[in-house]
Structures are given as structure tokens and as C-alpha cells.
Amino acid sequence: MTLLECITGPEDLRGLSQDQLTRLAAEIRDLLIETTTRTSGHLGPNLGVVELTIAIHRVFDSPRDKIVFDTGHQAYVHKLLTGRVAEFGTLRQRGGLTGYPSRAESEHDLVENSHASTSLSYADGLAKAYKLRGEPDRTVVAVIGDGALTGGMAWEALNNIAAAKDSRLVMIVNDNGWSYQPTIGGLAEHLSAIRVSQRYEHVLDYIKTTLSRAPLVGGPLYGTLHGIKKGIKDVLQPQVMFEDLGLKYVGPIDGHDERLVETALRRARDFGGPVLVHVITRKGLGYPEAEQNTVDCLHQVPAAGAAPGTWSRVFGDEMVAIGARRPDVVAITAAMLYPTGLAQFAQVYPDRAYDVGIAEQHAVTSAAGLAMAGLHPVVAIYSTFLNRAFDQTLMDVALHKLPVTLVLDRAGVTGPDGASHHGMWDGSIMQLVPGMKIAAPRDAKRVAELLNEAVEVSDGPTVVRFPKGKVGGEVEAVAKLGGMDVLRVPGDGLGADVLLAGAGPMALTGLEVADRLAGHGIGVTVVDPRWTKPVDEALVEAARQHRLVVTVEDNGRAGGFGDAVARLLRDHDVDVPVKTFGLPQEFLAHGTRDEVLDEAGLTPQHLARQITEAVALRSSGDVRETATLRAEGARRRLD
Ligand SMILES: Cc1ncc(C[n+]2csc(CCOP(=O)(O)OP(=O)(O)O)c2C)c(N)n1
Questions:
Q1: How far, in Å, CA of 513 to CA of 212, rounded?
Q2: What atom in ligand 1 is closest to the CA of residue 45?
Q3: Cα-to-centroid distance, 131 and ligand 1 (Å)
Q4: Is 203 left (phi over 0), alpha (psi -120 to 50) or beta?
């Protein structure tokens, strides 16, 4: 039995010797590597916080003390130290452990949102609440990376925390110099990984030698650390800013020296007010493939980069082509240069690409500024993170009718990252924005086509949304209906029973549905709307020629494309019934994309069954209608 297997909770850590802790750290690293390379997951970030998390659980008394992990992707070590070693092999699998903290899994887990930069606000509230409730012995701990610290929310929280002088709050800044890519600087510096790592090596050496001469124990509480900090202030900038905010600052501490981290955390805990502990770690430590990976230190395995054949890659390639023709087109990413497929554009046009950090709100309003000055910005963002920037899209961009294109990757079901990562909201919230146009390409050719159409729009914002993963086969239109593509008309001998409008790749699902329904004698016209907002008015007449209208979208059902179609038909007094298929308006659990779509009933098989039932109901309704008419006729004759 390994040492790790004996750890059933944080209390088991307390009696371990320094040697045992070193052994434990090695066992944790082995398990992290073995598991995530098999299941997928966040490897680099977790390898970097092994000693830090051990120290946290030895110093603080979770769950009485509250530990909030910012973003939560670095909480695997925490999972292992809080009784989940046996289940760890099920990480990110349907029904298995989630990839982020999960309150259903453990009383030690608190925040499961996975959207970055929120931990300090949660911690501020928790600490204030414990004070108000008269529980002053509880400490709240927030663990936040230097990447997450680039988000505006974190600074709003710091501003408040600095003023809450008696909040028992320990903020641990886990500074590894990396977000997905190096945190500091913009896109032009993305090649500076080597320089950055050298810088940290330099700091670590400096701390080691200095601390061996000036041990943490004894002396004024913060004096020693303060001195060290001042000594290297030209190497590391953040502490200057923290100090200016009036926050107590401890550090920088070598985050891989467990004993040093513990000492700093104990002092911070006992201070009785908000303290910021600055810990320097190395992302991917203990796994050369991660440590030496110059793209993202294996932030995630498999890498989240835009692999050949993915939607992100097709988008990225087209951006390079557009960039050549259109010098006014610029690109913005919020710390996701590689995953969104923008890396190539940044390489070819380094002056026209901006990495703004984990700052989606700033990204969108900065895009508004770029557009006001005559450029056409393309903001590439994961669909789920656009939620952050709704007001910016509405008021800063749309109200001013500015030509900004938002390219939403990972729209719809994403899979193993679970509830907080499914991009199932944008198709609804963007429907609310006046003047917004939303494109949903069905295949690679349409990504290029619609992206080009989007950047041609000069009088307002546009969205291009597509899902995660590989693009499917290409399907050409057989006809046009207004601006929409007709992909299939009812086969010989079949009536115009169903008009099926499938948004994005759901148009291809619609073709499979049509095949199945044809087998039941039901004729289906399949259209790809291409633009899901505004809904093409040609749908009105087309609907009148069918007995049932069906919409299918990979987005929450409430307020999405389907509802927009239903509203259009109502407004035109079309009395053909409309069935809208989409994701249930719930927080959907993790699983593969196919598993989640299957559970949501968005597979050809489920859809065909439900549509067949609806058509059958409609037919029996026709029979009832006919019977009622006959009865009425008979009554009239009698009169
Ligand atoms: C609002 C938001 N935008 C983007 C992301 C995607 N994301 C996940 S982790 C990460 C980098 C985090 O860097 P850091 O906080 O320094 O932690 P590290 O991985 O380096 O330990 C990013 C950009 C996110 N989770 N939330």
C-alpha cells in the first residue's frame, strides 16, 4: 500500500515526517501523470501545486476553514488529499470524478464554477460572513494563479479585501508565470517562455540562498520577507502593486519547499487579517514533457491546441487568409491563443493580434475601441466565457453599432469539463442583443464562408459559433431559400410533412433524421439557416407549406434559435405547430460530447422518434379535425 493510499483526509497528513511528505509528493505526481495521460485532464497546473496543496491541508483545518481554488483546474491534488484516491482513475469520465471541485463529491469542495478570477470575491464574502456570524476562528483561503489574477474581478475583490482589515483571509498567489501561455505581456511575447523560465529559476535560486541565511522564524513578523521582497522587486513586479493596495504581503516563497510554504502559511493564518502569500512554483514540475513544453507546460492533456481537422483550426486558417486581404482585421484572445486557433494569425501578423489575459470583458470593450477607430476586431473566445462579457457586447459594442465579430469556439456541449464549460448559453443571450447577427456554420466550408460574411458586416456586431472537436463531412446545398441553404427536399412519393431547420452542425443531424423519417413515410425538407439571427423571413412561407416545423440546435432551448423561429411564425400568424429541440435548460454533467447529446435527446435516433410521434399526433388531429368538420356539416344540413 502506498503512502497516498493511506491518506483518507487532511488529518492523516499532520503526523507525517518531512521525508514521508517528500515521498507522498512523488507518489501524487506519479498518479497525476498516470491518470491524466489516460483520462485527459489538467496535468501541468496540478504537478505545480503538489507541495503547496500538502502545506495548505497541513496548516488549515478544512472543511471548517474554507479553501477556494480559483478556476478549480488545479484541485486534483486537493481531491487526492481529501479521500478520493480510489476513484481518481474515473476522472472526467461519465459518472466519475469531475475535473473541478464538486460539492457532491466532498465536503472539502466549495466552488465548482471553473470560470477564472472569482476566488477572491468568494473568499471576501465568506470571510465577512464568518465575522458577522460570530465565528472568528475560521480562516478562508483562496488559491489563485497569476493567470487568474489578470481577470478584472480579482482586482475588484482585492480592492475590497484590502479595506476589510479584520477578515481572516489568506490569499495564496500561485505564480508560475503561465496562464495557458506565459502570463506576462501580450502575444508578441509568447515566444519568451525560455526567458520567463530563466527568470523564475533566478528567483528560486535567490530565495533559496537568501532564506538559508535569514530563516523565516524569529524577527519581526513580516520584516524578513519584506526585506527579501524589496531586494528582488525589479525581478518580480506584483508585490509592489499589492503593497500599494495596502495588503499585507508575504513572499515570494519557493512553492516546492513544503516546509517553507507551511511556515509562511502558519504566519499568514495567525495574522488575523487579510494576507497575500506569494508562492513561486513551476508548472509541470516532475514531468519533463510538461516542464519543457514551451507552448503551455501541458496545461491540459491532450493539448487544447487547434489540432488539424478541428473547427478551431479551420477558423484559424481562414483568419490567416482574411488577414492577408484585410489589413483592418485584428484578432483578440483572452489568454487562449492556441486553444482558439489564433496562434497562426499571431505568428503571421504579430502587430494585429492581442492577448489581453483572462479578461473577456476588457477584450470585448477593447474591441469596441478598435472598431471605433476603423478596424474590424475578431474576438475569439470560448462560448461559455462570453457570458462574462454580455453587458460589454450589449452596451459597448451593439449600442454603438460597432463592427466586432465574436468567434465562439466550444459552443454547445463540450464534454468532460462539465456543467460550467458547456457553451449552451450564447445562442440565447446573443438573441437578445439588438442588431446582432449570429452565424452557425454546419461544416468547414461554411466556417470560412460565414466568417468572411461576418467580417464584411460594417454596421454592427456579429457572432460565429461552432462546437468543440473535429469538423464533420461537407454537405452542399441543393437549393436556396432566401439566404438559407436547402439540404434536402422530400423524396419521391413523400409529402411536405416536416420543415426541419438545423442550426450549425445540427443541420447534418437533420439529414440523418430525414433519412430515418423517410423510412416511416414522412417527407422532410431540411434547411440550414446559416444565420440564426435574424431568422430568415423566407421561413414563413416555407412553414405554411408544411404540416410541422422542427428546429434543432446545440444550445439551451430557452430563448435560442428555436424560440426565435416560433416567434417569427407567431408574428406572421402561421398556425403550423413548431417543435423546438435543444439542450434542456439545466447544468449538464460531464461526459463525452456524444454521451451528453444522447442524454439530451439530440441524436438522430431520439429526434426521429419524437418527430414521428409529433407527426402522428398531428395526423390524428387532422382526423379529429375532419370528423369535427363532418359533424358540423351534418348539423348544418339538419338545421
Ligand atoms: C473566465 C475564464 N476564461 C478563460 C478560462 C480558461 N482557462 C482555464 S485555466 C486558464 C489559465 C489559468 O492560469 P493560472 O490562473 O495562472 O493557473 P495555472 O494553470 O497557471 O496554474 C485559463 C485561461 C477560464 N477558466 N475562465
A1: 70
A2: 21
A3: 30
A4: alpha
The Cα 88–Cα 110 span in angstroms is: 19
Name the grid cell of 301: 492533456
How far apart, in Å, are the Cα atoms of 378 and each of 176, 365, 432?
Answer: 29, 12, 20
Atom number, ligand 1, closest to the C-alpha of residue 146 = 16
Neighbours of 179 (CB within 10 A): 25
Instruction: Residue 405: name the closest of 454, 364, 450, 443 by CA.
Output: 454
Q: Which three cell numbers stand for residue 157?
A: 475583490
Top-confidence residue, 97 or 229:
97
H helices present in 440-518, as ranges: 444-456, 506-518
Dihedral sign of CA atoms 8, 9, 11, 13 in order: positive
The model carries a pTM of 0.90
Write the residue with the smallest CA distance to atom 23 of ligand 1: 335
Query: How far is the C-alpha of 143 from the C-alpha of 116, rounded, in Å?
Result: 11
Among 286-290, 301-305, 527-531, 617-621, which stretch is predicted with the lowest mean pLDDT? 617-621
Q: How far is the CA of 112 from the centre of ligand 1 (A)?
A: 14
From 179, 361, 386, 388, the mutation candidate for ligand 1 (largest count of ligand atoms within 8 A of CB) is 179
User: Could you tell me what percent of the chain has a pLDDT over 90?
Assistant: 84
Atom of ligand 1 nearest to the CA of 388: 1
Q: Which amino acid is at 90?
A: T
Q: What is the mean pLDDT of residues 462-486?
A: 97
Distance CA 143, CA 123 (A): 10
As a whole number of angstroms, the distance between CA 296 and CA 145 comes to 14
Q: List, chain by chain if needed, residues with CB within 6 Å of any ligand 1 atom.
A: 45, 48, 71, 73-74, 114-116, 145-148, 174, 176, 178-180, 183, 283, 299, 334-336, 358, 360, 385, 388
Please report the atom of ligand 1 found closest to the CA of residue 71.
25
Number of C-alpha atoms within 13 angstroms, CB side, residue 170?
A: 28
How would residue 179 be classed by pLDDT, with cut points 50, 70 and 90? Answer: confident
Q: Which atom of ligand 1 is nearest to the CA of 180?
A: 11
Q: How do residues 543-553 score in pLDDT, each as one tens digit?
A: 999 999 999 99
Indicate the top mutation candidate among 36, 42, 71, 342 to test ligand 1's pocket, ranked by most ligand atoms within 8 A of CB: 71
Residue range 362-373, pLDDT digits in tens: 999 999 999 999
pLDDT, tens digit, 9 for 90 and up, residues 278-297: 999 999 999 999 999 988 99
Mutate to test the pocket of ligand 1, among 358, 362, 381 (most ligand atoms within 8 A of CB): 358
Q: How far is the CA of 582 from the centre of ligand 1 (A)?
A: 29
Work out the pLDDT band at 304, boundaries 50, 70, 90.
Answer: confident
Instruction: Point out which residues pair with 437 in neighbouring strands.
Output: 462
List, for residues 258-268, the tens digit of each pLDDT value. Answer: 999 999 999 99
Ligand 1 center to residue 179 CA distance, Å? 6
Question: Average per-residue pLDDT in the chain?
Answer: 90
Instruction: Determine the distance separating the centroid of ligand 1 and the alpha carbon of 180, expressed in angstroms.
Output: 6
* pLDDT band, residue 206 (cuts 50/70/90): very low
Distance 149 CA to ligand 1 centre (A): 9
Catalytic residues: 283, 360, 388
Residue 340: pLDDT above 50? Answer: yes
Q: What percentage of the chain exceeds 70 in pLDDT?
A: 88
